[in-house]
Amino acid sequence: MKKKGQEEIVGFVLIVVILAIALVIFIGIKLRNPEPVQKNSEILYQFIESSMEQTTDCVIRVNGKNLALNELIKECHSFDNSCLSGSNSCESVEGAIVSMFNATWKVGPEYPYKGYEVVGKYNSNSSSGQGEEIFSINQGNCSNNYIGNSYFIPQFPGNIVVQAKLCS
Amino acid sequence: MNLLHVKYSKGQFKIQQMVFIIVAIIILFGIVSVFFVSIRFSSLRGDVDDLRKEAVLTQVRKMAGTPEFNWISSDDCSSCVDLDKLFLLKERNSYKGFWTDVSLIKISRVYPLYETSECTTESYPRCNEITLVNKGDFEAYESFVSLCRFDNEIKQTKCELGKILMGFEGVS
After folding, report:
1. Which range, A77-86, B107-116, B132-141, has the best average confidence (pLDDT)?
2. In B63-154, where do the E strands start and end?
3. CB atoms A103 and B161 under 8 Å
4. What is the ipTM of this complex?
5. Alpha helices in chain A (DSSP H)
6. A7 CB near a chain B CB, below 8 Å?
7. Does residue B151 lie in a domain region?
8. Residues B88-97, buried b or exposed e (16+ Cβ, 10 A)?
């Protein structure tokens, strides 16, 4: 037969064990399913904004001008014409973005940034969540932890959103 | 009266036990909350640093809008700087000492890169850097801009990706 003192100690130990288990479960859930964390990055916004003014090698019409990257993205979305050099306008968009990203940020397992994603979407209505995808570029590995930002290019009646993520 | 022989009642023991348990639980929760608060404050400190850096970056970017840097064209381009103008500024003696509170102002090409680093009369425009101020001993911040100029080869405006680097003394 157990003494009353022993029963109280068992009760106390039980409370401590239950609290410890609850704490371990809470921490376990927090660590196992981290929510995607996006930090809005000013430097990434400046990078996208400046990149959009970049003059590309793509000329659509004879005696026409070399298109800026934002004009080329509009061209890719609206007409998908080929450049005079023979390359497709959408391929030229992806080539220009990849070249600029690779020249600016080193990504890979041995670098602070493990990868990047750049997605261009057309939103006909600003209130609708999902847009029509124009291009999508992925390099390296992207986890849930990243810095990102978006840049809007007006394209009547909606707009084109260029979303960039740098994953760490 | 001999204090060593004071007898405590069973009720007093019970109260003592309960106090011990309450104190133990308070200490346990105290440790957990100190742990939690320290984690929260460490991330807050990081957020404050990020906000400060972004404020400095915005200030650096404002430099692109000053008359000495700004690219004036029919397009609305707040991030464009006039590369020809900056190269001429570098050569002008009247602008020596114009930017007094800044230890470094450098315009650097990001893409595409050429072989020559600092721009000279011979290498311009196929060069990568224009240094306007370099006093040494600074903490540098950089901001992306478009480097625009009229290109004689394609007979139109050509913009390329670059950045403005500004160094400030004693900023941390």
Report:
1. B107-116
2. 80-82, 104-111, 116-118, 127-134, 139-151
3. yes
4. 0.76
5. 4-32, 42-51, 69-78, 89-104
6. no
7. yes
8. ebbeeeeeee
Cross-chain CB nearest to A55 (options B61, B143, B159): B159
More confident residue, A51 or B50: A51
Q: What is the pLDDT of residue B144?
A: 94
* Cβ separation A42–B159 shorter than 8 A: no
Q: pLDDT tens-digit profile of A137-151?
A: 999 988 778 889 999
Amino acid at site A91: E
Judge whether B97 lies within some domain. yes
Q: What's phi and psi for B71, nearest 5 deg?
A: -90, 120
Q: Which domain holds residue B142?
A: 56-168
Work out the minimum CA distance from B15 to partner chain A, whole angstroms: 13
Round to the nearest angstrom and report the end-to-end CA distance of chain A.
Answer: 60
Looking at the domain assignment, is residue B31 inside a domain? no
What is the total count of domains within chain B? 1
Q: Cβ distance A137 to A98 under 8 Å?
A: yes
- Span B94-112, pLDDT tens digits: 888 888 888 899 999 999 9
